[in-house]
Amino acid sequence: MAAKEDYLITIGIAPSRAETGYGYIKLGQPHKTEAGITIYEVEEFAEKPRLLVAQKYYYGREHLWNSGMFIWSVKTIMKSIEEHAPEAYALLQTYAKSIGTADENAARIKLYNEAEPISIDFAVLEKASNTLTLKADIVWDDVGSWNSLERYMKPNGDRNVVVGNAVLEDSYELTVYNEGEGLIACLGVSDLVVVKSENLVLVAHKTKVSEIKRVLAKIGERDDADKHF
User: Fold this and answer.
1) Is the CB of residue 214 less than 8 Å from the CB of residue 202?
2) 2, 25, 98, 185 — which has fewest CB within 10 A?
3) Measuring CA to CA, how many Å separate 32 from each of 91, 127, 133, 151, 195?
4) Residue extents of the structural domains in the chain
5) Cβ contacts of residue 141 below 8 Å, gap of 6+?
């Protein structure tokens, strides 16, 4: 369908829990059924919700997780970028002229440095009127989140998930990840994510892990940021 028609198709996942760390897609009316798969109109995109709203989405069954997987033709997405993100389109057109030439690598770096740091969802999909979605019948999770470890690794008797060298005392429902040498010690705490990686230690409440970009941005402003990434 995406190859023949002018549509941007997103792949949504039926929620298996009330998740506050994901964006959501609200299902609109059925648009078309192909090969037994119903494709829906998108009524709206919803940002990462508060817990009560996430619970409403989960039990209401009118929302899907926004997986960040898409189906579209090059022609359609470029047309949409031109319409909704003209500055990005102009940068892409400039870069396209360098493809296959000795200047391509330098042009790619220039494109990366000058492009606005914005997701395709915000820049295009939420503004477009030709967006559709379908429910993917697959097991999916955002393994880029530290909270996902507790869903795939067996916790100990205190509901702690531990990777690497750590000592925990009177501490419960922690996710602890020690990437290198040294020791992580925790006493009398709960519901935290503790990560040690070379010169950087992260301590965050589990409910705030999805906001980690705020901390990374602060670190990036420091003069010694290169030491920590």
Assistant:
1) no
2) 185
3) 35, 22, 10, 35, 46
4) 1-140, 146-223
5) 148, 151, 152
Quickly tell me which residue has 């941005």 as its tokens: 217
Structural tokens at position 5: 């028609």
Q: Retrieve residue 22's tokens.
A: 């994901």
68-85: pLDDT as tens digits: 999 999 999 999 999 999
Percentage with pLDDT > 70 across the chain = 98
User: What CA–CA distance (Å, rounded) separates 68 from 43?
Assistant: 17
Structure-token match 């000058």, residue found:
114
Best CA proximity match to 25, nearest among 11, 39, 36, 38? 11
Residue range 1-140 forms a domain whose CATH class is: alpha beta
Residue 152 has a pLDDT of 83
DSSP state at residue 15: -
Q: How many CA atoms lie within 13 Å of 49's alpha carbon, on the beta-carbon side?
A: 20
Strand-pair partners of 46? 24
